[in-house]
């Protein structure tokens, strides 16, 4: 048979009603409603019908309220600060500086290498996953570098562009009605290009990779079998004559 529960007088009926009507959270509002109705003498069945809570959960709310008081009402998960971060602010600053230098074993930074650095810093084994998470958390992104030849000079390129524009001015003056355009054509190159791997850089930046493109040149001639056979017949006829 439904029964009334004993509620400890942590708050008055007026304070419970005010907490119920002024609560900003739906969970806190319903918790206040449960305690308020029970304090007014309502049975657990009546409270369950109004709030939609099961009897076991109503008993749990009452036990917590009688033991702790109003601090037990509401969603207590919002007060949970979560787990302690793996690195403090100083250690994160150290990691940021390390990522802007070359890894100890050379190459490029990646998740496993950052995890190895974390393992050495913290004195315990770290899986590659935290390394990748810290790379993302520090707002680093994987980008494909823009290849740039090691002998290229940005200043010489800009100077050549300016000189080329000046060279076209006399042509434009000689042909004022013509549309003078500058076109460039390059040879077709075959061969293995340097493999450019993705690197971790700050968000919004485009990295450059210095490469050394080297090519070996050769002349290749070709002819169809019919042409070769016709040339052989002509040579044999000349030899007979």
Cα end-to-end separation: 130 Å
- Whole-number mean pLDDT: 81
Classify the beta-strand content into a percent band. Answer: 5-15%
Poorly predicted residue ranges: 234-241
Number of helices: 9
Task: Report what the structure shows.
There is one protein chain. With 241 residues, the protein is mainly alpha-helical. Among the domains are: 13-79, no CATH class; 89-138, no CATH class. The chain has nine helices and four strands. The chain has helices at residues 13-22, 26-39, 44-51, 55-68, 89-99, 111-122, 128-137, 154-174, 225-240; strands at residues 140-143, 146-149, 199-202, 208-211. The strands form two sheets. The chain has a two-stranded antiparallel sheet with strand order 1-3. A two-stranded parallel ribbon has the order 2-4. The longest helix is centred in the last third of the chain and has 21 residues, at 154-174. Residues 234-241 have low confidence and may be disordered.
Any chance you could write out the topology, listing elements then pairs?
Elements: H1 13-22, H2 26-39, H3 44-51, H4 55-68, H5 89-99, H6 111-122, H7 128-137, E1 140-143, E2 146-149, H8 154-174, E3 199-202, E4 208-211, H9 225-240
Helix pairs in contact: 1-2, 2-3, 6-7
């Amino acid at each position: 048979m439904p029964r009334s529960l004993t509620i400890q007088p942590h708050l008055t009926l007026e304070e419970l009603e005010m907490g119920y009507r002024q609560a900003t959270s739906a969970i806190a509002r319903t918790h206040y409603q449960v305690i308020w109705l029970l304090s007014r003498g309502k049975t657990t069945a009546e409270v369950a019908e109004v709030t939609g809570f099961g009897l076991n959960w109503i008993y749990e709310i009452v036990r917590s309220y009688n033991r702790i008081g109003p601090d037990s009402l509401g969603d207590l998960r919002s007060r949970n600060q979560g787990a302690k971060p793996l690195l403090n602010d100083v250690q994160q600053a150290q990691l940021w500086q390390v990522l802007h230098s070359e890894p100890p074993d050379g190459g490029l930074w990646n998740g496993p290498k950052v995890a190895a650095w974390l393992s050495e810093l913290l004195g315990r084994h770290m899986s590659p996953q935290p390394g990748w998470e810290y790379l993302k958390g520090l707002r680093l992104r994987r980008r494909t570098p823009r290849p740039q030849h090691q002998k290229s000079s940005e200043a010489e390129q800009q100077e050549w562009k300016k000189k080329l524009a000046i060279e076209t001015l006399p042509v434009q003056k000689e042909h004022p009605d013509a549309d003078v355009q500058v076109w460039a054509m390059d040879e077709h190159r075959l061969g293995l290009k340097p493999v450019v791997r993705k690197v971790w850089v700050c968000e919004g930046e485009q990295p450059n990779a210095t490469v050394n493109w080297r090519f070996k040149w050769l002349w290749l001639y070709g002819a169809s079998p019919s042409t070769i056979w016709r040339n052989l017949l002509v040579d044999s006829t000349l030899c007979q004559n």
